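Final report, closing paragraph on structural work. Over the funding period we assembled a curated collection of sequence-structure pairs, and we close with a single example.
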Amino acid sequence: MTGTRRLRGGNVLARALHEKGVEHVFTLAGGFCNPALEGFMECQMRVVNCPHEQVAGHLADGHTRITRKPAVCLVGPEGFANAVPAIMEAWGERSPVIFITGSSTLKRQGAGGFKEIDDVAIAGPLTKYSASITDGARIGEFVDRAWKIATSGYPGPVHLSLPVDLMFSSVDEDAGRDERPFHRASRPAPRAWPDPRDLGPLMERLAAARRPILIGGHGVWWSGNEKKLEEAGRSLNIPVFNVPYHQKLLGEESEAYMGLADRHQYPPYCFAAEHCDVAVMVGGRLDNQMNFGNPPMFPESCELVCVNGSHEELELNRAADRVLLSDPGAFFDSLMTLAPFDEAWLDINRVRRGEWVERTLADLDADNEAGAAKGEKMHPLQLAIDVNRALSEEDWLVFDGGNTHFWSEIAVNVAGWEGKKLAGVLHPGSYSLLGVGVSLALSAKNTHPASNVVLISGDGAFLSGGLSIEAAFQEDCPITVVIDNNGGLDCISQQQERLFESGTHFATDFRDIPFHGIFEGMGGYGELVETREQLGPALGRALASGRPACLNVKAKGVISPIVLATTDRRDKASIE
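Its predicted structure, as stored:
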């Protein structure tokens, strides 16, 4: 080692990330981060300059979710405060994003330096690892540690703070290279293999089961084992469900896939839960969405098994009857050694799904007919179904909002039963954070430029994060945004109307906003849609425009099943 060439700390940071294989950095360029930006430029890493730090964080999150490879969000001190919601969203989805703050000077820490903020403490509860780099010679070491923590075990976001005096000061190019690890390229994350003493009895129990179900969670996606999940369901005749608020593991058209493990958005799950004898949740958490493992989500008659790839996941699943520490892929390999279960069990679940779809469409047709007689606007479920039907298997669908999200989940299941296959589906994670839709749609378009990407967004969700559409113009990413415009925060107003003694809602209405005009003013395509008959042709024109486009669809407010359940005291205990 010569130690003769010296680089700014920010440049060393960029090189360390480049060595790990980072290809995309999302930022709002600021003075605190200039040396790092110079380093990214010299390493020829793609840097996307965003209109807001929260947008940068959501884009990094979306890119990481799709590629399953960490992306970087780089912000300054005050920008870190703007990026906190994105950190929270990544934390809820266990997305291994690397958040980096160019922070106030280290040598005057605690003395009120320029833009000083305790970013390390703020990020701590929302990341797997949050630390301040204290020595320029250790920059590579901190990057290596953060990367391995982010990608190993139960993955999740990490945060590094690089003080501005270290960002700008000179460091030996090979600093720290005289210590292990000498090679710091990315390596596959370690996987946990099951202890035979635990695996054997579990396989015996599953072999004796008559009506098992599989529920896939985050761990299946991040370990890359969704195909093994589908194979196990299809080959062994096991109905497969997906935890809510998580990226789709299987296409809705899959033979074994039934829908969400949710009693309200997918009522046939009630039948499966009540009649199954063993429920196996792989890579998931017994959190509020799973009613903490309790009835009626999992009846006492059902044995609940949790399979997780890390100890930290298992610690969240203390309520399970059995637990297994195992990489999801290794568990599925063992599961596939069992004989297939009675095909009648899978068939009856498919029958229940088909009956639910038929009933849902019949109710929707009746509502459409009655609404047309009254001159009502389009039903949000019809909007979502029609958008699904217009897309091809190369296209991506994103949705964002309250009721808009819930109706879109139902529409995706209905369209999947009809045979609709999509390239991918994205939506907010477990925190249900409004305003992430545009950023997730941009991520899908960035990673799949030949695909059409359509976002169905509530009007409130678009107002929360819609100006991020500027990044679509700047990066030449023609996504299409379909606004479910019901004139307010309908999800909240409907709850108020059932909660308030007056039976009215308060502080939830919007004025009539010309969302399509905003796109037109920015150089995109915009169109107002007021009837169902106008929607299909308008969507075709928007996709053909080759520009960021908006369809401002006037829809009526209809309470979704899950919002109705939250306001019903009898059902509330099953979802909270």
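The chain has three domains: 6-172, 196-348, 377-572. Residues 569-576 have pLDDT under 50 and may be disordered. We thank the funder for supporting this effort.
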